[in-house]
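Changelog entry: the Calcineurin-like phosphoesterase domain-containing protein record was regenerated in this release. Current contents:
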Amino acid sequence: MPSSFFSFLGFASEREGWFEEEMSKTMEGLCSLLYLTLVLTIVFTLHTQIAHKLLIGHHPLHLKKSPHLPLRFNSGGTFKILQVADMHYGTGILTRCRDVLASEFDYCSDLNTTGFLKRIIQSENPDFIAFTGDNIFGPSTHDAAESLLRAFGPAMDSELPWAAILGNHDQESTMTREELMSFISLMDYSVSQTNPPVDDLSSVAEGDMTKNIDGFGNYNLRVYGAPGSHLANRSVLNLFFLDSGDREVVQGIRTYGWIKESQLRWLHSVSKGYQGQKQDNYHLEEASVCAIPPALVFFHIPIPEIQQLYNQQIVGQFQQRVSCSSMNSGVLQTLISMGDVKAVFVGHDHTNDFCGNLEGIWFCHGGGFGYHGYGKAGWPRRARIILAELEKGEKSWMGVERISTWKRLDDEKLSKLDEQVLWQ
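Regenerated structure tokens:
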């Protein structure tokens, strides 16, 4: 045969080998692409369907959003606090209301509590929100973290600084009191603390006692002077938060919790630490600047002495027996001896919303806020507002001159009532 024919066969054979090689490379590329697609599909599925179930509350992790700190009076010389007592939040729309009018019941749920909180924040425009316990009602939720996120949702959405303490019902679900406070402290815009930091003034005054302090949610927040004033870098108002516990057994009888001796020692030492600092700096500033800053205290369960106010002059309504502990741990005596505490704000008794004076210190109930907590049909849920005002000097804002309070009702007009001056 001609040589050209054999040359053609060689070319064809070579061409076939090249084609097979290219096909092999193509198949390898397709396999790699399919493998990569399979891996990405698995990763996506894990992220969207599985990973979120491994996290508390079924929510993905994210960095905490923090408020502008430190807490301070605004340029108008005021600092307004919204007290929210006893939200008793459950799971949301499926959690029914208690003690409302029959005409309201079919359409009432936790969403009414959420709506009230949104309205009051928008109306009063507070500088700070204080939640004073029983934020969630443990027996009504199978996921404490999820309920906390929903209950505090409006506060986080407002981007205002807020703080919370625990009541006697918060831990009755899926988290311990320590876990609850830790979780709350990590929520957006929360300035809550599980317990005092080791570098608190207590460690200077009486040694490091913070490791042995009872409860979870004992801490102090300092409120600084107005921006641009000569008190802008000084604390002019102190906010103390205390864990009053949940339930205890005393001599075989079940009773409510109480504030323990270790907590009172810490509280007293922090107060004395501030007073010592003011005395040390007295020669550097005028007397009005160095005056001991007033303090407000927040806890959930009222102390036994509040029962005495039933037969005394009060502002507001005393409609139920004070549900306090059978133990008297000396809270009132400690607060009196401190000298800086002007008012105490509690919750727990939902149909009590009065303020009364004991030994020069005002004790005020918040009144029931949440619709899943017990109340009184026809008696609107309510919130308490606390306003601290600075003294106006010749050139700048001075220290706190006046502290007052009032309530807002969850009615059509957010009615305001019982305004009362607590200190001036």
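The first strand starts at residue 71 and ends at 72.
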